[in-house]
Structures are given as C-alpha cells and as structure tokens.
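Lecture notes, part 5. Sequence design as translation. It can be helpful to think of inverse folding as translation between two languages: the language of shapes and the language of residues. The source text, in structure tokens, appears below.
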C-alpha cells in the first residue's frame, strides 16, 4: 500500500471512529462500505464494520467478519478486542476472556484490562479480578471504571457496606453519574423497610436534578415492586422509560408488574424488545411465553420471534419456538 492509500485508510478509520463515538452507526457503516469498494480485502476495514454490526446488535454477522479478519491478521489487537466484545455481549465469558487476554498480550491498555476484569467477574474468578484491580488502582487510584468493578465484587460477595463506601468514593469523583448515585442509594437501602426507602427516595425526587434521573425512578419502581405495589411501580418505570427509552432492564421489570396485574397484552408489548435482545434470559422468555399463552397473542409472538432470529440466527431454540408458534396458529385457523 502506497503512502497516499495509507493516508486515505487512516483518514477513513478516524472518521468512522468519530461517528461510532457519536453513535452514528448508519453513517459509520456507509463510510466503511464506500472505503471497502476501494479496498475490498483490507482487514482493518472489516474489523471496524464488524464492530459497527456488533453495536447494532448483529452479533453473528459481526463474528463472521472478525473471524475472517483474524485469518489475515491474527496478531491484530483490535480484531481480538472486537471478538472479545462480541462474546461478552453473548455472555460467553470464557471465549471473551481468551480474546481480551490475546489483545492484552499484543498491547496492554487500560481499556483492554478493564474488559479482562469484567470478564473475570462474569466467570466469578474474583481473586484474579481483584489482583488486576489492585494493579490498576496503584497506577490510578481515581479510576472510576475500575472502582466500579471493585464495588461489584464486594456486593456479589455480600459486603454491602464496603461496596457502598466504594460507590460513595466514585460519586465523589463523578457526582454527575446518575447510575452510580442510584447504586449508592440501592446499597444503602439494604435490610431497610420498603416504606422507609420509598419515603426517602420520593423526598429526593423533589430535587430537580434527581427528578430527571431514570435510574432513581427505576429504583423507586423496584422498591414498590418488592412491596407488591405494582400499579405504583408501573408509574415509576414508565417515568424511567421516558428518560431512558428502550432500556431492557426497565422494560423487563415493567413486564413483570403487568404480569402480576394480569395484563398479558401489555406483557407481550413490553417484553418484546428485551426478548429480542436477550432470548436466552430465562425470566424474560418464560414471562413472555406465559403471557402469549394466556392472552392468545400468537401472531404478535411470531413477529417477535422472527426479529429475534434475525438478530440471533445461531440460537436454535428460537427456531423450535417459531415452529411451535406456527403449529399453534395453524390449529387456531383450522
């Protein structure tokens, strides 16, 4: 590749990188498509396109492209990093760790190390994760991402007060982080009566900045759900969704509340998105299927299944569900 071609490629990759940061995936893929017309066999472009597809939820397509790129550039750090992200999105932590560690051996960066830590936590290899966390915090004690992982391990081991202290430290470092504020409040609410927590959180909502925090609304919703106040919980989850549209976490809990109030059509409507994203999630799947059966929403379920298959073509259980759904529809038509 000549100097002009190399400069062109670098410029294109920089443009694509900026578009991805701005979450302009469609424009990023258009730039890559045009560049690949000039350089159809350039693996660096293939890797970037794969990452865009991953961010767009098309994991199987992304995986195919990265595997092809790795045959040409087996020691490319970014290829291993993107493959690790794909497996992480699929919650295949063992495979994700293999590629993140390969990326780290090629070039150790703070970002790749953070992904190794996250994957180790997913595998519940907490001692190894703690060792890496310790190393990173020695280098930068104010590393908010690494501190979050430390708090996650403490919480999973039942050390709620220590975890809350770490979240307090993060909140002091990044006071504008709404999610951290919510986690801090959640941990401080452990072992307290739901009514007491509800009063405290509603008092906080009178502060204008808190009122626009979707995480706080969702936390109030969770607290109300635990107390069996499903109608009130729905109202809070809907406020959270207005501030954070299509949030699967919020939608899944909203669907649970609708199920408790015997509203199967709302359950199907609410859980369609989370199921399309995470068809393996037992809670989402079982709740959705139960609502479909109860309300007879087989046509809607068929459409949801087709969307899920489009995004996860390798998920064989979806094809089985689709076959059963089509048989159910045939039975009803006959």
């Amino acid at each position: 590749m000549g100097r002009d071609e190399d400069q062109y490629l670098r410029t294109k990759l920089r443009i694509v990188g900026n578009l991805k940061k701005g979450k302009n995936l469609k424009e990023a893929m258009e730039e890559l498509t045009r560049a690949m017309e000039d350089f159809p066999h350039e693996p660096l472009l293939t890797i970037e396109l794969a990452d865009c597809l991953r961010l767009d939820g098309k994991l199987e397509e992304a995986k195919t492209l990265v595997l092809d790129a790795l045959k040409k550039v087996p020691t490319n750090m970014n290829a291993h990093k993107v493959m690790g992200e794909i497996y992480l999105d699929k919650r295949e932590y063992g495979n994700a760790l293999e590629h993140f560690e390969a990326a780290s051996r090629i070039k150790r960066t703070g970002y790749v190390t953070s992904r190794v830590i996250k994957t180790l936590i997913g595998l519940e290899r907490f001692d190894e994760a703690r060792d890496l966390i310790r190393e990173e915090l020695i280098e930068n004690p104010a590393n908010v991402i690494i501190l979050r992982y430390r708090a996650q391990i403490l919480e999973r081991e039942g050390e709620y007060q220590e975890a809350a202290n770490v979240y307090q430290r993060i909140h002091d470092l990044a006071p504008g982080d709404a999610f951290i504020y919510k986690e801090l409040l959640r941990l401080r609410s452990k072992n307290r009566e739901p009514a007491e927590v509800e009063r405290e959180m509603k008092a906080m909502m009178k502060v204008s900045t808190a009122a626009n925090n979707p995480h706080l609304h969702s936390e109030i919703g969770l607290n109300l759900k635990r107390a069996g106040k499903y109608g009130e919980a729905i109202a809070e989850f809907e406020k959270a969704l207005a501030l954070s549209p299509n949030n699967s976490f919020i939608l899944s809990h909203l669907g649970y509340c609708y199920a408790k109030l015997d509203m199967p059509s709302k359950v199907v409507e609410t859980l369609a998105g989370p199921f399309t994203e995470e068809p393996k999630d037992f809670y989402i799947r079982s709740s959705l299927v139960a609502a479909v059966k109860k309300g007879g929403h087989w046509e809607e379920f068929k459409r949801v299944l087709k969307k899920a298959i489009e995004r996860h073509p390798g998920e064989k259980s979806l094809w089985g569900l689709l076959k059963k759904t089509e048989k159910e529809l045939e039975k009803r038509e006959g």
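The translated text above is only one of many valid answers, since several sequences can fold into similar shapes. The radius of gyration is 23 Å.
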